[in-house]
Write the structure tokens for this entry.
Amino acid sequence: MIYDEDFETLPREALEAIQLKRLQSLAEKAYATVPFYKKAFDEKGVKPGDIKSLQDLHKLPFTMKQDLRDNYPFGMFATPLENVVRIHASSGTTGKPTVVGYTRRDINTWSELMARTLAAAGAHKGDIVHNAYGYGLFTGGLGFHYGAERLGTSVIPVSGGNTKRQILLMKDFGPTVLTCTPSYSLHLADVAAEEGIDFKSLDFRVGVFGAEPWTENMRKDIENRLGIDAVDIYGLTEIIGPGVSVECVEAKNGLHVFEDHFIPEIIDPATGEPLAYGETGELVFTTLTKEAFPLIRYRTRDLSVLYHEPCKCGRNLVRMGRITGRSDDMLIIRGVNVFPSQIESVLMAREDVAPHYVLIVDRQEHMDTLEVHVEVDEGVFSDAVKHLQRMEQDIEKDIKDLLGVSCKVRLVEPKTIQRSQGKAQRVIDKRKA
Ligand code: ADP
Ligand code: ZN
């Protein structure tokens, strides 16, 4: 179903006219209210008034994750804090999260976009949504929640964790729409099976899965095991959270970007040059309607492709391909964004380990696992086993405290981690199946 016929099926020309108007007022506003943008525009020698066509977007400066960090926590806000009714955050690379704000109108926009998203996946009034995205600073839980209410479904705000209880609720409440990460959906099916419940016998019809990379193979696996349609949803905290793009259940082939609110671009990550439709590169988004936290040409580091072929669902919106990778080394572990450099900073803060480590990421029973192998310092290794165990636990705790993700630390003997000639291979990701 199309939730917002007016906007989702607009003829290209009409859509672009709206985009241009919105882009012009965004540029004016960002320049006038966010010191970062005034400086960035001035350095590029561009004025808001220079935007005469959509092509002129390319004249505007990029925004990087580092810029958000430099302006921590509220420096990028385009409105006084008293107009901000909600704050969310996502994990950052320095231990400091990226902080975003929403005005009342932003929350309204987001709810509308998530209602569109759920409708595109085939949800409607009368559905019961089992929402197992985490509630809290993370945008997933509340983003889906508001959209589900806006659409008129009954939403169960179950959040993440406590899987056995989730299975019980699924059996008793009869939810028809499942929203969680793709890996968690398979974990749910495993735990259901352990409890003697065939997931297919539940009432679920469709799942809306995102927040981490997955593959076509995994889609098939989920659809077969859960007996549902599995739809891909994409978003990121900086842009709004979930609700940037979604597949339609009719085609399940590429994610429609809600272009009346976000302009997507694909650029060459090395040069920053815009690439044509059909070419793979880094996704860049400009927010057209956000009040509290507008972003101009935000570099996501996610790799994808944009294409324009008409879709059988009737939406006229451009589609982006499944995310195929990142142009940086960010990992997503159980939904948490993790940079190897963050783990390195924990290790380097200690005297008793050497700067040689490797991260082993895997998936067991459909849940991500992280192991950190690190060399003990030469002086330490002769010590008692007990002491080494305590060191491992200490490091595990430090990593958990900084990143919010549990891991297993394994100390290894000095000089046993392979040295590389060039760029060190710090990550072994065994999940890529
Ligand atoms: P969220 O996890 O809520 O989408 P975050 O800001 O924590 O928001 O993380 C955003 C990142 O998660 C994206 O930049 C992208 O790397 C990854 N991501 C989100 N959705 C998908 C998806 N459907 N496929 C692949 N990666 C995704
Ligand atoms: Zn479609």
Summary: The chain has two domains: 1-326, 331-432. The first strand starts at residue 84 and ends at 90. The mean pLDDT is 94.
